[in-house]
Specification:
There is one protein chain. By secondary structure, the chain is α/β, with parallel strands linked by helices. Helices cover 30% and strands 21% of the residues. The strands form three sheets. A four-stranded antiparallel beta sheet has the order 7-1-8-9. The chain has a three-stranded parallel beta sheet with strand order 4-3-5, with helices on both faces. Helix 2 packs across helix 8. It is globular.
Length: 232
Amino acid sequence: MSKLTKNQKLALGKIEAGKAYSLKEAAELVKEITTTKFDASVDVDVRLGVDPRKANQMVRGVVSLPHGTGKQVRVLALCTPDKEAEATAAGADYVGLEEYIEKIKGGWTDVDVIITMPSIMGKIGALGRVLGPRGLMPNPKSGTVTNEIGSAVKEVKQGKIDFKVDKAGIVHTSIGKVSFNAEQIRDNAKEFISTLIKLKPSAAKGTYIKSIYLSSTMSAGIKIDPKSVEEN
């Protein structure tokens, strides 16, 4: 295990062991304990009281972050010619159909999100082996399969993200950058966690939100008191 740098030791010293911070406090603290020279991502990890192996306890959804993600999201719009101008105007980085399907078959996946139309899904199904493992397969539940191509592209560009609970019952996502101010980090985290709470499966019993941690790239995690999420 690598030795901690002087800055990392100082950062760890700012986190009180065993303490559950309010979301407001955590949003301020995550900026203080980040020692990276680059603009680190701010991440939220939420452990849920669900059994993801059961279909009726799967948690998956989308959320539009009030202040965006801070990332430049590369969007590919696979659409019919009559929708190309709409997709381009909305800010899609790549727009087309057959030529991009062929590129993807060849292994090209240099995008972050793919948006397409229901009528085209038949052609895109064959790309599952390439897109699936990379989390790029369009899905109606995440809003990436729609006839409203322009609106979907715009939402993704403005900070709409999709998330899904993993096999361990944890939902992990990035909700901003350390360069955001503490209030922006808090707002984005609150919107994400509040959305998770609304998605609680009726089949889930006992404590739903088991733990919440806020961290940045390479920083320690800050434990958050779930009750503080609803505070103003």
